TrEMBL record:
PANTHER family, per database record: PROTEIN YCEI
Alphabetized SMART domains for the sequence: YceI (SM00867)
Source organism: Gilvirhabdus luticola
Domain Lipid/polyisoprenoid-binding YceI-like: 29-191
Top-level taxonomy: Bacteria, Pseudomonadati, Bacteroidota, Flavobacteriia, Flavobacteriales
SUPFAM superfamilies with a match to the protein in the record: YceI-like
One Pfam family matching this protein: YceI
Name used for this protein in its record: YceI family protein
Length: 192
Protein backbone atom coordinates (compact mmCIF):
# COMPACT_ATOMS: atom_id res chain seq x y z
CA UNK A 1 0.00 0.00 0.00
CA UNK A 2 2.86 2.39 0.80
CA UNK A 3 4.47 1.67 -2.59
CA UNK A 4 1.24 2.60 -4.41
CA UNK A 5 0.94 5.82 -2.44
CA UNK A 6 4.56 6.75 -3.30
CA UNK A 7 3.85 6.15 -7.00
CA UNK A 8 0.69 8.25 -6.79
CA UNK A 9 2.63 10.97 -4.96
CA UNK A 10 5.31 11.00 -7.69
CA UNK A 11 2.70 11.24 -10.43
CA UNK A 12 0.97 14.09 -8.59
CA UNK A 13 4.27 15.95 -8.11
CA UNK A 14 5.10 15.56 -11.83
CA UNK A 15 1.62 16.77 -12.75
CA UNK A 16 1.96 19.86 -10.51
CA UNK A 17 5.46 20.67 -11.80
CA UNK A 18 4.29 20.31 -15.41
CA UNK A 19 1.32 22.64 -14.82
CA UNK A 20 3.45 25.25 -13.05
CA UNK A 21 6.08 25.14 -15.79
CA UNK A 22 3.43 25.48 -18.49
CA UNK A 23 1.82 28.43 -16.70
CA UNK A 24 5.12 30.22 -16.20
CA UNK A 25 6.27 29.72 -19.78
CA UNK A 26 2.95 30.80 -21.30
CA UNK A 27 2.22 33.66 -18.90
CA UNK A 28 -0.84 34.32 -16.83
CA UNK A 29 -4.26 34.92 -18.35
CA UNK A 30 -6.63 37.36 -16.67
CA UNK A 31 -10.30 37.85 -17.57
CA UNK A 32 -12.01 41.25 -17.65
CA UNK A 33 -14.42 41.85 -14.78
CA UNK A 34 -17.41 43.75 -16.22
CA UNK A 35 -18.85 44.83 -12.86
CA UNK A 36 -15.64 46.61 -11.77
CA UNK A 37 -14.76 48.07 -15.19
CA UNK A 38 -15.78 51.43 -16.61
CA UNK A 39 -15.66 52.66 -20.19
CA UNK A 40 -17.27 55.95 -21.22
CA UNK A 41 -17.42 57.94 -24.44
CA UNK A 42 -17.49 61.74 -24.32
CA UNK A 43 -18.44 64.11 -27.10
CA UNK A 44 -20.04 67.39 -28.02
CA UNK A 45 -23.07 68.57 -29.97
CA UNK A 46 -24.54 71.87 -31.06
CA UNK A 47 -26.85 71.60 -28.01
CA UNK A 48 -24.64 70.25 -25.19
CA UNK A 49 -21.77 67.96 -24.28
CA UNK A 50 -22.71 64.31 -23.82
CA UNK A 51 -21.53 61.04 -22.28
CA UNK A 52 -22.32 57.43 -23.12
CA UNK A 53 -21.44 54.59 -20.75
CA UNK A 54 -20.74 51.02 -21.78
CA UNK A 55 -22.72 48.43 -19.81
CA UNK A 56 -21.36 45.16 -21.29
CA UNK A 57 -17.65 44.71 -21.83
CA UNK A 58 -15.53 41.58 -21.84
CA UNK A 59 -11.95 40.70 -22.61
CA UNK A 60 -8.71 39.11 -21.55
CA UNK A 61 -5.05 39.93 -21.06
CA UNK A 62 -2.09 37.57 -20.96
CA UNK A 63 1.07 38.71 -19.17
CA UNK A 64 4.41 36.98 -18.77
CA UNK A 65 6.84 38.87 -16.54
CA UNK A 66 6.90 42.41 -18.05
CA UNK A 67 5.55 41.36 -21.45
CA UNK A 68 1.88 41.60 -22.41
CA UNK A 69 1.44 38.75 -24.90
CA UNK A 70 -2.18 39.49 -25.78
CA UNK A 71 -4.96 41.91 -25.01
CA UNK A 72 -8.53 41.85 -26.25
CA UNK A 73 -11.43 44.07 -25.24
CA UNK A 74 -14.90 43.55 -26.71
CA UNK A 75 -17.89 45.85 -26.24
CA UNK A 76 -21.49 44.94 -26.99
CA UNK A 77 -22.48 47.85 -29.27
CA UNK A 78 -26.05 48.13 -28.00
CA UNK A 79 -24.82 48.28 -24.41
CA UNK A 80 -23.79 51.90 -25.03
CA UNK A 81 -26.25 53.87 -22.91
CA UNK A 82 -26.64 57.64 -22.57
CA UNK A 83 -29.72 57.68 -20.36
CA UNK A 84 -31.79 59.07 -23.25
CA UNK A 85 -33.59 56.59 -25.53
CA UNK A 86 -33.59 58.96 -28.52
CA UNK A 87 -29.83 59.50 -28.31
CA UNK A 88 -29.22 55.76 -27.90
CA UNK A 89 -31.37 55.05 -30.98
CA UNK A 90 -29.36 57.58 -33.03
CA UNK A 91 -26.10 56.10 -31.74
CA UNK A 92 -27.14 52.55 -32.73
CA UNK A 93 -28.21 53.77 -36.16
CA UNK A 94 -24.84 55.53 -36.70
CA UNK A 95 -22.96 52.41 -35.54
CA UNK A 96 -25.19 50.12 -37.67
CA UNK A 97 -25.68 47.80 -34.70
CA UNK A 98 -28.16 45.66 -36.63
CA UNK A 99 -25.16 44.47 -38.65
CA UNK A 100 -22.17 45.16 -36.37
CA UNK A 101 -22.89 43.80 -32.90
CA UNK A 102 -19.51 44.44 -31.25
CA UNK A 103 -16.68 46.96 -31.01
CA UNK A 104 -13.33 45.20 -30.59
CA UNK A 105 -9.77 46.20 -29.72
CA UNK A 106 -7.21 43.45 -30.21
CA UNK A 107 -3.45 43.64 -29.83
CA UNK A 108 -1.83 41.25 -32.34
CA UNK A 109 1.77 41.64 -31.10
CA UNK A 110 3.29 41.64 -27.65
CA UNK A 111 4.02 44.86 -25.78
CA UNK A 112 6.45 45.59 -22.97
CA UNK A 113 5.50 47.14 -19.64
CA UNK A 114 7.65 50.03 -18.46
CA UNK A 115 7.92 50.00 -14.67
CA UNK A 116 7.25 53.35 -12.99
CA UNK A 117 7.17 52.20 -9.35
CA UNK A 118 6.33 49.06 -7.37
CA UNK A 119 3.36 47.43 -9.13
CA UNK A 120 2.75 50.42 -11.45
CA UNK A 121 3.65 50.44 -15.12
CA UNK A 122 3.08 52.23 -18.41
CA UNK A 123 2.18 50.35 -21.58
CA UNK A 124 1.79 51.42 -25.18
CA UNK A 125 -0.35 48.91 -27.05
CA UNK A 126 -0.56 48.96 -30.83
CA UNK A 127 -3.59 47.10 -31.99
CA UNK A 128 -6.62 46.90 -34.23
CA UNK A 129 -9.81 48.73 -33.29
CA UNK A 130 -12.88 47.61 -35.21
CA UNK A 131 -16.01 49.76 -35.15
CA UNK A 132 -18.96 49.27 -37.51
CA UNK A 133 -16.98 46.98 -39.79
CA UNK A 134 -14.01 49.35 -40.19
CA UNK A 135 -10.67 48.34 -38.66
CA UNK A 136 -7.90 50.83 -37.93
CA UNK A 137 -4.52 50.26 -36.32
CA UNK A 138 -4.26 52.56 -33.31
CA UNK A 139 -2.02 53.06 -30.29
CA UNK A 140 -3.49 53.03 -26.79
CA UNK A 141 -1.51 54.18 -23.78
CA UNK A 142 -2.32 52.53 -20.47
CA UNK A 143 -1.44 53.12 -16.85
CA UNK A 144 -1.17 49.59 -15.48
CA UNK A 145 -1.49 48.48 -11.86
CA UNK A 146 -0.57 44.89 -11.21
CA UNK A 147 -0.74 42.66 -8.17
CA UNK A 148 -0.82 38.88 -7.94
CA UNK A 149 -4.43 38.27 -8.86
CA UNK A 150 -5.49 41.50 -10.54
CA UNK A 151 -4.51 43.91 -13.31
CA UNK A 152 -6.05 47.35 -13.84
CA UNK A 153 -5.69 49.35 -17.06
CA UNK A 154 -6.54 53.03 -17.18
CA UNK A 155 -6.30 55.57 -19.98
CA UNK A 156 -8.06 57.51 -22.70
CA UNK A 157 -8.02 57.91 -26.47
CA UNK A 158 -9.41 60.68 -28.69
CA UNK A 159 -10.31 60.14 -32.35
CA UNK A 160 -12.84 61.17 -34.98
CA UNK A 161 -15.94 59.11 -35.75
CA UNK A 162 -15.29 59.63 -39.46
CA UNK A 163 -11.97 57.75 -39.05
CA UNK A 164 -14.22 54.67 -38.83
CA UNK A 165 -16.63 55.76 -41.58
CA UNK A 166 -19.27 56.77 -39.02
CA UNK A 167 -21.39 59.81 -39.78
CA UNK A 168 -21.78 61.78 -36.53
CA UNK A 169 -25.42 61.40 -35.40
CA UNK A 170 -27.98 64.16 -35.95
CA UNK A 171 -31.34 64.83 -34.32
CA UNK A 172 -34.44 66.93 -34.95
CA UNK A 173 -34.05 66.90 -38.73
CA UNK A 174 -30.39 67.89 -38.53
CA UNK A 175 -30.79 70.90 -36.26
CA UNK A 176 -28.79 69.17 -33.51
CA UNK A 177 -25.46 67.82 -34.73
CA UNK A 178 -22.94 65.71 -32.88
CA UNK A 179 -19.29 66.78 -33.04
CA UNK A 180 -16.97 64.46 -34.97
CA UNK A 181 -14.36 64.12 -32.20
CA UNK A 182 -14.94 61.72 -29.31
CA UNK A 183 -12.85 60.73 -26.30
CA UNK A 184 -12.98 57.23 -24.86
CA UNK A 185 -11.98 56.93 -21.19
CA UNK A 186 -11.46 53.50 -19.70
CA UNK A 187 -10.63 51.94 -16.36
CA UNK A 188 -10.85 48.17 -16.72
CA UNK A 189 -10.08 45.41 -14.24
CA UNK A 190 -8.89 41.88 -15.01
CA UNK A 191 -8.79 39.01 -12.50
CA UNK A 192 -7.13 35.58 -12.70
Amino acid sequence: MLVINNKIAKVLILFIVFNLTTRISWGQEYKLVNISSELSIFGTSTLHDWEIKVENIKGSINIESLIVNSLKIEIEAESLKSGHKGMDKNTYKALETDTYKTIVFQMPNSSELSEQSEGKYLMEAKGDLTISGTTKNITLKFNVERNNDQIKLKGEKTFNMTDFNIDPPKALMGTIKTGNEITVKYHVTFNK
